[in-house]
Design goal:
Layout lengths: L4 H11 L15 E3 L5 H7 L2 E6 L4 H15 L9 E6 L6 H6 L7 E5 L6 E3 L5 H14 L3 H4 L8 E6 L2 H11 L6 E6 L5 E4 L5 E5 L2 H12 L33 H16 L4 E3 H17 L4 H15 L3 E3 H8 L3 H4 L17 H19 L8 H13 L3 H10 L38 H19 L26 H9 L9 H12 L13 H8 L10 H35 L8
Parallel strand pairs: 1-3, 2-3, 6-7
Antiparallel strand pairs: 2-4, 4-5, 6-8, 8-9, 10-11
Helix pairs in contact: 1-9, 5-7, 9-14, 10-11, 10-14, 10-15, 14-17, 15-16
GO cellular component, one term: Golgi membrane
Keywords: Disulfide bond, FAD, Flavoprotein, Glycoprotein, Membrane, Oxidoreductase, Signal, Transmembrane, Transmembrane helix
EC number: 1.8.3.2
């Protein structure tokens, strides 16, 4: 049994050659790209704020321009601290993830020599970010080392009542100052500057006036270098392409590649799984085992994992790694096909997850012999995704959007996420959410509605693939029968102003699209018996999709042509036979 996740994950990396070169950042003088090779030396050399991210995480991609903007606001603070990033999708950084217990992305840690790393919440505002960093430098007793103390001769002393404000002033001015600045806390309500001779040179209660005096008398101005753009991250409004007018078939490879990543990385990244997290994992594995048919070899892997965790009360990272190591579902080299983005960090993993969720809901619908007033897949996703999906902001949004499918005693938001969400932690108004599904039919339609709402929220973000812009699915071009004329007219005014409103036709389309018998199996090892079994599954609804009707028409034409040819052959044979039996005329 393999004892580490690294060899397992390397197999996945090899099958996706080039993916891990797709960093969202590059070292540009203000942001340093770190790996396990240079991490320790760099963070021990000076205080360092490190962002741990995944290049495939939509929230991480969306945060790139924001992070570069707020870092620019402290460009002059590099003498006191540095900023760095670590791409946790790189398998070489696996040990860093385990060492610092990183389980959601993006995660920010501030490293100070001789102390434990300080967790910092995600910041969106330059002023809040500046105050937070200055506060850390003061509170962690780095003040005397970062901002020169009393023993330095010929220093200019800045005193005042607020240590954090004094720290920000010195952090802003020291790099460009013609003198050494040092700080001193006083009970005086005013800011005071004492020059190198010991004379009070300026006093004011106005911080802006104090800064103006420093700028005028002690600052040597230099031109600031602009930040470089991140590689591959362009304006989402640029290079947009029109959405495709056909439905890309479902590839089993997309589902399996994402399930691999989910089990190996997102589940395997947690140090310990217990309590409500473990309950959610067990529930999720149960619905995957029951409703996701990936062929015998992968089904056996899923059943194996489900069986082994069922009786466990706690799972460590090492135990989980040992469970998945050696399984086909974790070691097979499978690549995304339809979900492959125009750039390595776009689409991919989350795209495959959505297809997997849709396929499970459709498979449950196909298996249903009679109506069941339950929604096991919806509930399992509501419990699992917010706790295990590594993109923490996406996880919070999903928890909120699907909060009305939880049971009455269950919390809306998991307590295992370390980062503050981008919205208040309140229970959403049920009337603002898609109606909770109450049957297998409802689940298929509900999940499509939820997916369209997520697409609407993400439309226009940096994480959107310009080659595959977010649209309502299915579009009128993909399923004209799913849309009424009124809904189509409304959609022309705004691409998210309407959704398919003919539910029977929509259900038929979704079932046909996601059912296993419609899948493509390129790049996947699957037995003939498995495929034959799926082909026998009938669609239990009295409606045909457009593709079904086209297929029936083509088959009918072919059959008619075959009958014509057969009739012609019979006629030719009859005429030839008659000619053979006609007696030859005799001569007189």
């Amino acid at each position: 049994m393999v004892q580490s996740l690294l060899p397992v994950f390397l197999c996945i990396v090899i099958s996706n050659a080039g993916v891990y070169a797709a960093s969202l950042y590059k070292s540009d003088g203000q942001i340093m790209v770190l790996t396990s090779k240079n991490f320790s030396d760099f963070v021990q050399a000076q205080p360092t704020l490190v962002q741990f991210y995944l290049h495939s995480c939509g929230a991480c991609q969306n945060y790139v321009p924001i992070f570069k903007r707020i870092i620019k606001s402290v460009a002059g603070w590099q003498w006191a601290f540095r900023t760095a990033v670590v791409d946790c999708a790189d398998p070489l950084n696996e040990k860093l993830i385990e060492e610092h217990n990183i389980s959601s992305f993006p995660t920010f840690l501030f490293f100070l020599k001789g102390t434990a790393p300080v967790r910092v919440n995600k910041m969106f505002d330059e002023d809040a970010f500046r105050k937070k960093i200055a506060g850390i430098l003061v509170e962690e007793q780095q003040h005397n080392r970062l901002i020169p103390g009393q023993e330095i001769p010929d220093a200019v002393t800045i005193s005042g009542p607020d240590a954090r404000i004094i720290a920000m002033i010195i952090l802003d001015f020291q790099m460009n100052s013609s003198v050494i600045l040092r700080s001193q806390i006083s009970e005086d309500s005013q800011f005071r500057l004492v020059d190198r001779t010991g004379k009070v040179a300026f006093t004011s209660s106005d911080e802006d006036a104090f800064r103006h005096f420093l700028t005028k008398n002690y600052v040597t101005v230099h031109k600031e270098q602009p930040l470089q753009d991140s590689p591959g991250l362009s304006n989402p409004a640029e290079n947009q392409t029109s959405p495709v007018a056909y439905s890309m078939p479902v590839y089993a490879a997309d589902i399996i590649a994402s399930l691999q990543y989910l089990l190996v990385r997102d589940v395997g990244i947690k140090a310990t799984i217990k309590g409500s997290d473990l309950d959610a994992l067990k529930e999720f594995m149960a619905v995957v085992s029951k409703y996701l048919n990936l062929g015998r070899r992968y089904n056996e892997d899923v059943a194996y994992l489900r069986k082994h965790i069922e009786g466990m009360s706690e799972i460590t990272r090492k135990e989980w790694h040992e469970l998945v190591a050696g399984l086909n579902i974790s070691t097979d080299q499978v690549q995304h096909i339809a979900c492959r983005g125009s750039k390595p960090y776009l689409r991919g993993y989350p795209c495959g997850l959505w297809i997997m969720f849709h396929s499970m809901s459709v498979n449950r619908f196909l298996q249903s012999k009679k109506p069941e007033p339950k929604a096991p897949i919806a509930h399992a996703l509501n419990r699992f995704v917010p706790r295990f999906f590594s993109c923490s902001y996406c996880a919070y949004h999903f928890a909120r959007l699907t909060s009305n499918v939880r049971l009455s005693h269950e919390d809306v938001y998991p307590d295992s996420l370390n980062e503050e969400p981008p919205f208040p932690l309140v229970v959403p108004d049920p009337s603002s959410l898609p109606a909770a599904p109450k049957s297998s039919r409802d689940e298929v339609l509900w999940l499509n509605t939820v997916h369209n709402l997520v697409n609407k929220r993400l439309s226009g973000n940096p994480s959107e693939d310009p080659a595959a812009p977010k649209v309502v699915f299915p579009s009128p071009e993909q399923c004209r029968a799913c849309w009424s004329p009124a809904a189509q007219a409304k959609l022309k005014r705004d691409k998210f102003s309407a959704t398919p409103d003919k539910t029977d036709e929509l259900l038929a389309y979704l079932v046909h699209h996601y059912r296993p018998s419609s899948w493509r199996w390129d790049g996947i090892s699957v037995s003939f018996e498995d495929v034959s079994q799926w082909k026998l599954v009938q669609q239990p609804i009295d409606a045909f999709s457009t593709s079904d009707m086209v297929l029936v028409g083509v088959i009918s034409v072919c059959c008619a042509a075959a009958l014509v040819v057969l009739f012609a052959l019979i006629c030719c044979r009859w005429r030839f036979s008659k000619r053979e039996h006609t007696p030859l005329p005799t001569s007189a």
